[in-house]
Amino acid sequence: MKKQDVERELLSQLLRSGAGIAANLSEAVYESRRRDFFSKPRIVLKEYSGTHARPKLLRATGSLTETESSSVNQDSTEIPKMLISINKPTQQAQPDSY
C-alpha cells in the first residue's frame, strides 16, 4: 500500500471515529430512555480506546508535524479523563436492572 493511501485511510478512520464519538455523546444528552442514557458514555469510551493509536500512526508516516502530534497527544490524554469522569457518576446512578 502506498504511503498516501495509508495516510488517507488513517485520516478517514480518525474522522469516522471522532464523528461516532460526537454522535454518541450528543445522543446521550437527548436520550429519552434511561437505559440508553447510561450506555452511551461507555460506548464512547470504547470507541475512543480504538481511536487513540491513530494519531501516533499518522506521526510515524510523517502526516503530522511534531507540533501537531504534541497537540493531538495532549488532547488524547485529556479526552479519556473527561469520559471517565462522565462514566463514574452514570455508573453509580445506573439502575440495577433495565
CATH architecture: Up-down Bundle
Order of helices and strands: HHHH
**Structural class based on helices, strands and sheet pairing:** mainly alpha
Mean pLDDT: 79
Task: Report the sheet with the most strands, covering strand number, pairing sense and barrel closure.
Answer: none
The name of the CATH superfamily reads 23S rRNA-intervening sequence
Cα-to-Cα separation, first versus last residue: 47 Å
Cα-atom radius of gyration? 16 Å
What's the CATH class, please?
Mainly Alpha
Total count of helical runs of at least 4 residues? 4
Percent of residues in helices comes to: over 70%
Q: What form results from the Cα inertia axes?
A: elongated
| Count of folded domains | 1
Strand content: under 5%
CATH-derived topology? de novo design (two linked rop proteins)
Low-confidence stretches: none
Count of β-strands: 0
Explain this structure.
The protein is 81% helix and 0% strand. The chain is an all-alpha fold. It has one domain: 23S rRNA-intervening sequence (de novo design (two linked rop proteins), Up-down Bundle), CATH 1.20.1440.60. The termini are far apart.
